[in-house]
């Protein structure tokens, strides 16, 4: 498999963790987002959204959208599972993951922040926007799992929820969010980061890290 | 079941279609988003994100995030299916749906547009932002299914992809996007709108429509 990504992309980071949890190898093909390499015609032919990640399977099929890629990995390599078996628990895990993957990350990604700058917003206000988006998302996530004993978001093993949480907390810190306000999320993050699958997927451990 | 929604919320619209496709009834509880009813403490106790939809099942369990709700409905009421059986096809359907549910809709929702106004952006620029987001998302979606014969997004029956597409096209038109640029999407929309499950879920056919 080939994973098109970027060390700092939190969506690519989710898929790196999933591959590690499943014990699957992939050739990592970095695209420098700040240099706009994701908008090169050759990459747009792979993913018309011009976003990372994209995963090419061994037969050359292209998969896009990190959550769809992770669901696919979980379907074809079911062990260890990244979703619980019970439908209601699956829905809870997916809802937590999508609170990040839909309502948080895309509203503060590179493309949106660049657009805010184009509209004449001062850099300080752009950073405030990103921090606001992260606070909104993470405080809802904190409430969603406040009664979950953990230590992971949902139970004693990582799920899709943790795969979305850990990269988002990294973003939140980068934008100056005081993450101490989310003790339950930090508990899950600590449990996750103790696992090599998460540690080896971290941005700073990627070959294209700056 | 109880569906917390709003006639014009495109995320609630997706779930209304899913319930109709599955032949399931639900009590509809509207929350007027423009009046901020989704931020009332009683509703935040149901969904800490302060977003619609939220679905309460007959045992009182609360589900949030439209795509997670639809996946759950599809798991517990598998017929007619809203996802194909083949894992790679499922991944394609989910990727299309998430291109809308992650990268398009949340970047142009009421909350984000309100924030842009708070930052001093003129109304014309706010509308341009929403149109830009819709064009970016829909043009990628058009490419994603350009080689799919249809008539639906993926094959001869509606899937999660169509459930996300039809409400998003309604948004795009509301923001003045020239949707004629997306003939393949319009073909899928026409097929979907011919079904009562979609027609009955349309915003203008809801009791709280204005």
Mind explaining what this structure looks like?
The structure is a homodimer of 210-residue chains. The first copy, chain A, contains nine helices and four strands. The first copy, chain A, has 210 residues and is α+β, with helices and mostly antiparallel strands. The first copy, chain A, folds into two domains: 79 residues, 3-Layer(aba) Sandwich (Glutaredoxin), CATH 3.40.30; 111 residues, Glutathione S-transferase Yfyf (Class Pi), Chain A, domain 2, CATH 1.20.1050.10. In chain A, strands 2-1-3-4 form a four-stranded mixed β-sheet, with helices on one face. In chain A, strand 1, helix 1 and strand 2 form a beta-alpha-beta unit. Chain A is globular and about 45 Å long. The two termini of chain A are 24 Å apart. At the A-B interface, helix 3, helix 4 and helix 6 of A face helix 3, helix 4 and helix 6 of B.
Number of strands of chain A: 4
Enter the CATH topology name of the largest domain in chain A.
Glutathione S-transferase Yfyf (Class Pi), Chain A, domain 2
Q: What proportion of the residues of chain A form beta strands (DSSP E)? A: 5-15%
Individual helix count of chain A:
9
Query: Rough shape of chain A?
Result: globular
Instruction: From the alpha carbons, calculate the radius of gyration of chain A and give it in angstroms.
Output: 17 Å
- How many structurally independent domains of chain A? 2
The largest β sheet of chain A comes out as: 4 strands, mixed
Report the span from N to C terminus of chain A. 24 Å
Protein name (chains A, B): Maleylacetoacetate isomerase
Keywords (chains A, B): Isomerase
Family (chains A, B): Belongs to the GST superfamily. Zeta family.
GO cellular component, one term (chains A, B): cytoplasm
């Amino acid at each position: 498999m080939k994973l098109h990504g970027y060390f700092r992309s939190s969506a690519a980071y989710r898929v790196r963790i999933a591959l590690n949890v499943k014990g699957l190898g992939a050739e990592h093909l970095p695209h420098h987002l700040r240099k706009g390499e994701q908008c090169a015609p050759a990459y747009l032919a792979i993913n018309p959204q011009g976003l990372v990640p994209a995963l090419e399977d061994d037969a050359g099929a292209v998969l896009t959208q990190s959550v769809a890629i992770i669901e696919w990995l979980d379907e074809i390599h079911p062990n260890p599972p990244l979703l619980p078996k019970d439908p209601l628990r699956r829905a809870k895990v997916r809802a937590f993951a999508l609170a990040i993957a839909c309502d948080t990350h895309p509203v503060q990604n590179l493309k949106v922040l660049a657009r805010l700058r184009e509209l004449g917003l001062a850099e300080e206000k752009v950073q405030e926007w990103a921090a606001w988006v992260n606070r909104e998302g993470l405080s809802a996530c904190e409430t969603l799992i406040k009664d979950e004993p953990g230590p992971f978001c949902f139970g004693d093993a990582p799920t899709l929820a943790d795969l979305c949480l850990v990269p988002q907390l990294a973003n939140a810190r980068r934008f100056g969010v005081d993450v101490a306000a989310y003790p339950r999320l930090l508990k899950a993050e600590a449990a996750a980061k103790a696992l090599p699958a998460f540690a080896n997927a971290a941005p700073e451990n990627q070959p294209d890290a700056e």
